[in-house]
Amino acid sequence: MIEIEEKLRLRRGKPNDSEALTWYQNQEVVYLVDGVRESYSLEKLQRMYAYLDQVGELYTIEVQEETDWKAIGDVTFSQNDLPIVIGDSAYRGQGLGKKIVQALVAEAKKRGYSALHVREIYKGNYASQKCFTACGFEIQRETEKGYSYRRDL
Hints:
The structure is a single chain. By secondary structure, the chain is of the alpha+beta class. It has one domain (2-152): 3-Layer(aba) Sandwich (Aminopeptidase). The chain has 5 helices and 8 strands. The chain has helices at 21-24, 27-34, 42-55, 96-110, 126-134, and strands at residues 2-5, 8-12, 57-65, 68-77, 84-86, 115-122, 138-142, 146-152. The longest helix is centred in the C-terminal third of the chain and has 15 residues, at 96-110.
């Protein structure tokens, strides 16, 4: 568990978490993540989560509502990539992504990492580009569909 603030935390995710399926059936969300407008099946979501949990630490992003915690997205913590999705549209545009990325940068520093990388952010995903650049990431190079980023620590 990574506590970001009183009502925002990262809970270790599991490859069989299915609460995210509705986010990944939203074609706009999938477009920002994969660059295609094709909804995920439960099997595809579970394969993706299993892969992300192998290459890094898969987390479910949760916010506290009243007395319960609600899953609103996911993020994977890895030196080589930091894929993040705020799947619940009601929580986009509130600066949560920036708080999460800042918390992961702090965690990376604690672990002694020298840098963090983002493999690719698609050219049309302006919110994600803005989030990562606001957290000190710089464009490393142009990719086929966007840009890769790096933050030295």
